[in-house]
């Protein structure tokens, strides 16, 4: 794990707003700031018609991230999720929200001690020989401290106060920001927010994370070139999670060392194999594939951490979702149409025009996104492929029939699966990995 928070400008927080009133007030104040930014921008635009929207985006991103990073929890987690898609947000938002992955402002040590007293009746230094007073990493739901006992080193994750209790109310308050930034319809946002809420509730349960971390790491122990931390129930609770300290670098730091193509491919292959095995053998997958959760090393090995966000795939939905991997489906119109009905891409009561339009849209989407599965090897360093993905996303965003559809197109079950593959593709692209894209998918 990274040995220290790298940004010296990050302010340590001595408190977090925990009541609904306090948190709502922070959102309202931020909304006022954003409104003032718009007024200021358009006033300046009267004087200078050539003024770009980038300055407005930068000011809004700064204010929104500032508020979310103080609130922590689900509000900041949504920002982290959105930052993973480089095509989803204006660049200013992506740049700022990416900090939520592992560089949010940390919590002060007295609050960490208070959490330990609540769950163990002891301070950290009464349990461990050493315990860093400052967090070595701080993200949306909790922060990590480095501890030791004898010759052994531990990563101790401490959850921010009030995070679990404020999930539902936070998501209601963050919804207007999400609608404005993403341009989504209310019906689509509502469907996805329900899935996000369920996943976030699970993510704040560190006892569940420990259980899932043990299960998945044991099931994947045979996969080459990856390792997982051991977990320690005796030093863990519902809001504190203790595991082995793993060494390695986050993706950007790792790439800055200029690793060879061989090492990039080796790590890329491990990432692909790890996710493919979970998806198709376990039907349970580490659904938080942002760079903060992977520790890469010069010898091509990698440590994998953080099993708080795990998507369990219902068998019936799995059967439908992965039909599109079947190579025969592209040339079999009936098979593809049946799958589209099951996936909720098209409906029986759609007009003929809608059926034709959405069938063609989703056919193109399947051809493009599933392309790596249909080849023996795939070069994720091919930026032209990713440009095609992004251009297709832009086209979808500007398709009025899709934007104004009165029905959601797709299942909420797909939200975290799509997010997982997008995060995987994105990391493989940054690695410029050229790998074997075999899959253990099989019709069930």
List keywords for this structure.
alpha+beta, 3-stranded mixed β-sheet, 444 residues, 5-stranded antiparallel β-sheet, disordered N terminus
Shape by Cα distribution: globular
The count of strands amounts to 12
Q: H/E order of the elements? A: HHHHHHEEEEHHHEEHHEEEEHHHEHHHE
Gyration radius from CA atoms, angstroms: 22 Å
Mean pLDDT: 80
Tally of helical segments: 17
Strand content: 5-15%
Quote the distance from N terminus to C terminus. 39 Å
How many domains make up the coordinates?
2
The chain-level structural class is alpha+beta
Q: Biggest sheet, open or closed, and with what strands and sense?
A: 5 strands, antiparallel
Please estimate the helix content: 40-55%
Unreliable runs, pLDDT <50, ≥5 residues? 2-6, 26-49
Describe this structure in words.
- The chain has 444 residues and is an alpha+beta fold.
- The chain folds into 2 domains: 1-204, no CATH class; 251-444, no CATH class.
- The chain is 52% helix and 10% strand.
- The chain contains 17 helices and 12 strands.
- The chain has helices at residues 20-47, 54-71, 73-83, 91-97, 109-120, 124-127, 167-182, 186-203, 206-219, 251-256, 261-282, 315-321, 333-343, 352-369, 383-397, 400-403, 414-431, and strands spanning 130-131, 137-138, 142-149, 152-159, 226-227, 240-244, 284-286, 294-296, 302-304, 310-312, 377-379, 434-436.
- Strands 1, 2, 3, 4 and 6 form a 5-stranded antiparallel β-sheet that branches. The chain has a 3-stranded mixed β-sheet with strand order 5-9-8. Strands 7-10 form a two-stranded antiparallel sheet.
- β8 and β9 form a beta hairpin.
- α1 (20-47) packs antiparallel against α2 (54-71).
- The protein is globular.
- It starts with 19 loop residues before the first helix and ends in an 8-residue tail after the last strand.
